[in-house]
From TrEMBL:
Protein name per Swiss-Prot or TrEMBL: Uncharacterized protein
């Protein structure tokens, strides 16, 4: 579990590493997230270990924090689509085509 200090450092260190790798200036967390998503697996290799060394955490802890906590701020809550999903399920695969063409 990260301390508040580690959480604050995580974002700053992540941003600095990504700016260094991409030679760009990152203006917001959203741009940071989008930039990370564009990196290849080869480019991402070692990022979690580097961050962990800077904030006093293991590479696995940093990786898990990124994927299980930090990036969730960029996802929309699926419950707003609950009724649409129920309709799609109840109409079946063939009829769901008509839901999106109306």
């Amino acid at each position: 579990m990260f301390t508040q200090i580690q959480i604050n450092k995580f974002e700053r260190v992540l941003q600095k590493i990504i700016e260094y790798l991409t030679k760009t200036n990152i203006s917001s967390n959203e741009v940071l997230y989008q930039t990370i998503q564009k990196l290849s697996l080869k480019e991402r290799k070692g990022i979690w270990k580097q961050i962990g060394e800077k904030i006093g955490a293991s590479a696995a802890e940093v990786h898990d924090y990124f994927f299980n906590t930090w990036q969730l701020q960029f996802y929309e809550d699926a419950t707003v689509h609950k009724e649409l999903l129920k309709d799609i399920y109840s109409y079946g695969r063939w009829n769901c085509f008509f839901l999106f063409t109306m």
